[in-house]
């Protein structure tokens, strides 16, 4: 057999070195990130168990004075916002910080996966976990007597707010994890979680704070998410533009900073 016939054979192996398409790399990395999230018991406690316990505990007791009206109707949107923050920000910042410390990100940095690809993959994995969170929290809230308003328009508006908030929190988490040491990230992420739980309108309205600080609180991503969800799902108001602007701004700024300053090691 001549060399020409071997080269032209349809079964001849013809290597084609090169990076896979970006969408395939992001999809593969997102699947791996999701498996890691679901196997981490501590993160599941933070992202799933704590929000459910807060919802049940504060709905069935009068420890907090949340004003007139149904307790669960007021609390459910705020707990949904807390769940998004705990997954997209707190859990992801801590997990990514220790991945960076143990050299996992350094190895990823040697692959064709870019910073943007890593951010996109981690965000997709977070969205998948949030879908499970939302299903569980809404199910518990409905069992407690939650009566959401807004109909289809309200549901679509809530979905938009959650997507924007996820992008904002995820990018801020990666910015923190990619610039601070793992121990500092652990402390800072938990501190932010506690502070925003108290200041972000999650379990009581920001109207209780002095009027001088309310504009600053309204500019927080957790406040924009909680107030936007509550205005539509609890009060039945028309979708507002301000929460969308606030969350979109945080998402854009966070993504730009994370892509610029994130370090693999």
Description of the molecule:
- This protein is an all-alpha fold.
- The protein has one domain.
- It is about 70% helix and about 0% strand.
- The radius of gyration is 22 Å and the shape is globular.
- The relative contact order is 0.15.
- It is found in: Cell membrane; Membrane.
- It holds the Pfam family ABC2_membrane.
Radius of gyration over C-alpha positions, nearest whole angstrom: 22 Å
Q: Given the C-alpha coordinates, what overall shape results?
A: globular
Q: Ends: how far apart?
A: 53 Å
Biggest sheet details:
none
The SSE order reads: HHHHHHHHHHH
Helices, by number, come to: 11
Domain count, please report it. 1
Which parts are unreliable, with pLDDT below 50 for 5 consecutive residues or more?
none
Portion of residues within helices: over 70%
Total strand segments: 0
Give the integer mean of the pLDDT values. Answer: 83
Secondary-structure-derived class: mainly alpha
| Fraction in beta strands | under 5%
What are the main properties of this structure?
265 residues, mainly alpha
What is the structure about, briefly put?
GO terms for molecular function: ABC-type transporter activity. By secondary structure, the protein is mainly α.
How is the secondary structure organized here?
Layout: H1 3-7, H2 22-39, H3 41-60, H4 71-101, H5 104-109, H6 115-143, H7 151-177, H8 182-199, H9 214-218, H10 221-233, H11 242-261
């Amino acid at each position: 057999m001549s060399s020409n016939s071997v080269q032209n054979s349809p079964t001849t192996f013809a290597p084609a070195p090169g990076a896979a398409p970006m969408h395939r790399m992001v999809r593969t990395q997102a699947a791996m990130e999701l498996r890691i999230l679901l196997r981490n018991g501590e993160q599941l406690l933070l992202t799933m168990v704590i929000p459910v316990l807060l919802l049940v505990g504060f709905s069935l007791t009068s420890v907090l004075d949340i004003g007139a009206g149904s307790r669960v109707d007021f609390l459910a949107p705020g707990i949904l916002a807390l769940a998004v923050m705990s997954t997209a920000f707190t859990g992801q910042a801590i997990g990514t910080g220790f991945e960076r410390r143990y050299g996992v990100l350094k190895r990823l940095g040697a692959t064709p996966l870019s910073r943007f690809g890593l951010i996109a993959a981690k965000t997709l994995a977070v969205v998948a976990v949030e879908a499970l969170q939302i299903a569980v929290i809404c199910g518990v809230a409905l069992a407690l007597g939650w009566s959401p308003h807004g109909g289809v328009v309200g549901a679509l508006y809530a979905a938009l707010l959650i997507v924007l908030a996820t992008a904002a929190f995820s990018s801020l988490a990666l910015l923190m994890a990619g610039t601070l040491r793992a121990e500092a990230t652990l402390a800072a992420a938990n501190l932010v979680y506690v502070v925003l739980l108290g200041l972000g309108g999650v379990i009581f309205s920001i109207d209780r704070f002095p009027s001088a600080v309310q504009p600053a609180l309204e500019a927080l991503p957790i406040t924009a998410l909680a107030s936007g969800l509550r205005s539509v799902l609890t009060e039945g108001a028309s979708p507002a533009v301000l929460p969308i602007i606030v969350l979109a701004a945080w998402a854009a700024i966070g993504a730009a900073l994370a892509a610029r300053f994130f370090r693999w090691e």
